């Protein structure tokens, strides 16, 4: 999937890279000498670390199913148990024991149930570290961006590939620069920042982007940064990267290094001294180049923020806390990888005990349950040492073990039908935290605590007695100039021309050109159930011929007759949203469709496509062209177009022609590079085939 391909050919000058590209450059393997990676490029990556949690056993089964016997690099892999740790039934305990035994037999670092949430462990133990690439088979890997690491999620097949070979693939997303200006008003937190961003920029502005935060960052605590980075996932992004600065290094020196043994392999004086020297020298490795390119630029004025709440049941809907004061709550939650670190617990404790006197603690309102779980056993111990834990218990909180719990809809305290919950977690999708007939809101730890005390959604000011600052609306803007770079007039035409003329080496067995007629399915948000009906998903013996017949059946039953083998499917935006079923990709291949073009893709579908050898391209301008062409015709869910696409892989160019592949050109588009490593995966029939080929088990 070549995201925002209209931007990818415009290289301002040699060596100009944003910070995301620089980190990927360090961890890319098998690229030609002198090759500089760019947005849109497919690369093979060898991440510093790869974490999996309760899904470690399914990953292990996939790993063994590939014929692998020994993890390629045990020091690269981290296994944690965190999601379903309250579940003591025999089946879950057996799975947990299987994971532990497997980790020990492979020499992998293992953290048992109760040690903490995997993402928190990755930060505490230095597996995620500034300027490194860390991945996990969990969508909130973005969290690592809070400490200057590039963190991004993988699917299970990717994780198994990393276990077996040390590497997998990634396509560098379009990178959005988000500038934070000014400073936060007193009492406003990182949660308010990201909830505001999700609510203000709620039209998929950063969908499937990497984000780099810039601007007035130094006053933002590392805890605030971790929260913001964590919820860039809900904003739609694939990573959320903060810069390395003095604030971060001071945090390591004061908060992390004293907790580490002197010989700790990841957080130690040697690594921190190096970062400090680089920072003092303004080393280019720590920052984007001045003329680095971004797909878009967004701006948020921190001074304009107030306590913000998202919901109900959507992160894209948000409002100032005062606008929701009429909403009564039944349950409050201070849990999860988003907001249950020490600073979060202390913020909540300051609300329930504003005087600091543990004998003067406000009590949780009658009829309200307030659940609290630390992000890790270390955080819980620290909260007990500072007194924050005792204050929360005296207020009437119900303690849960360090883990995910109600955030993922597991264990004690789930929302019942008709109940309203307010949570410091990251997702309030309908039914995620319990009943689909419940309402869920998201807010900062301070607002959650105030709501638990008052019995309705409330500002901390209502409990503490200090008035909130006057709120006159959020100030945010988009730099429109950065969003469009005309394909016909690149910023550096010579650089683009030279890049295309040099050509991409084509692997034997991979086509240098992909050509087909466009079949247009004019709809946004075509989900995986529309592509491949759910009733077939868990049938393992569906013949390929049947998969071809039912492909797109729930979207348009006429698709089977209209589309022919060799056609190229074109659809709108967010194609493949929904479940993780791999058959959504393999059914299209069974139909004989070699390539899908869309305005944007659901990320899991995108990864499943490449992992199963289905090619994808993102070309928003093609969607606009087709929609304009058929604007005055009767709507059809599927139509043949007599318009052809030719993807010249070698020269990284797409031509759209009328009538035939040799007809008049109606659109020309430079796209990102599909390198030999990715070609090898496609030729091998997908990632699993590639891994087996590497292992000699095919």
Summarize the structure.
The chain has 698 residues and is α/β, with parallel strands linked by helices. Helices cover 31% and strands 17% of the residues.
Q: Explain this structure to me?
A:
The protein has 698 residues and is an alpha/beta fold. Among the domains are: 158 residues, Aconitase, domain 3 (2-Layer Sandwich), CATH 3.30.499.10; 204 residues, Aconitase, domain 4 (Alpha-Beta Barrel). The chain contains 24 helices and 27 strands. The strands form 6 sheets. A 7-stranded mixed sheet has the order 24-23-22-21-25-26-27, with helices on both faces. Helix 20 links the parallel strand 22 and strand 23. It is globular and about 80 Å long. The N terminus is likely disordered. Its cofactor is [4Fe-4S] cluster.
